[in-house]
């Protein structure tokens, strides 16, 4: 039974290498995020727990394996001593039986001294009782070690499953949902930015059309002034018509200048919006990339859960363990208690 328990411990030790490897792989996958997305979030903390749990379990299992190997070596030595003792006692019983069945004796040769046994009866009985009590203690220690080992196996497997399930069913879904909300918000901001760009471009076209509409009247007013300057010098006077034409030219020039200033302002606004749109598009790309990487982490952990499912108790109330082959690793003792 102790050898079977040690085999189960070694099997669990080897299986725990899988979550250690997968957690490290998940960390490397998440390192592919951009610097702005690399934050110390709940997913990172849970991944550290997923990696720490099997590592701690492996250290505990190694200590159990070391203690179990010592107990197993001691049990084998005691078993050999008990077998030798049983063999010697069987031979002694056969010899005593043969002596009891003798019907006639013989006279020993002259000079041969009477034989005496080297061990006293009290010492012989004490040695036997000591060997038997030591074997009983070793068996009791082995039973306690098996029970403790089985309990730790259950605790380690359950803890690893609980930590991994918390990550895959709570932390990662919350993270992916948050990324999806952020992507949706970025899409809305992008749409609003594009609408603002379209509105400003439409307004700029209207202003540019207004400038074009004022260029011809300005040219006409300037031409009228030049034509009136061709009159004879005696008829060239600063009358109301000249003042009105000059005022008209000045009004058109000021209006066109202001419209050009408005076009420049709109161009600056468009440049700012283009910068903002580029930032939003880059941020959205980063969020989408982060979401893809998080979904890859979910896939890796889900596959790990399928591989580790064989370690979970098939009957939690009886604390049974089952290997991937489907064989049960524990059984009830004579009192019906599962161990």
Describe this structure in words.
The protein has 339 residues and is mainly alpha-helical. 78% of the residues lie in helices and 0% in strands. The protein has helices at residues 2-15, 17-30, 42-100, 121-228, 240-308. Helix 1 (2-15) runs antiparallel to helix 3. Mean pLDDT is 80; it is low at 315-339.
List keywords for this structure.
5 helices, 339 residues, 78% helix, disordered C terminus, mainly alpha
Residue-averaged pLDDT, rounded?
80
What is the count of helical runs? 5
Order of helices and strands: HHHHH
Percent helix range? over 70%
Our estimate of the beta-strand percent is: under 5%
The radius of gyration over CA amounts to 48 Å
Please give the number of β-strands.
Answer: 0
Oligomeric organization of the protein chains: single chain
Task: List low-confidence stretches.
Answer: 315-339
Global morphology? rod-shaped
The N- and C-terminal alpha carbons lie at a distance of: 11 Å
The biggest beta sheet reads: none
Helix/strand/pairing category: mainly alpha
Question: What's the arrangement of secondary structure elements?
Answer:
Blueprint: H1 2-15, H2 17-30, H3 42-100, H4 121-228, H5 240-308
Helix pairs in contact: 1-3, 1-4, 2-3, 2-5, 3-4, 4-5
TL;DR?
The chain is an all-alpha fold and 339 residues long. The protein has helices at residues 2-15, 17-30, 42-100, 121-228, 240-308.
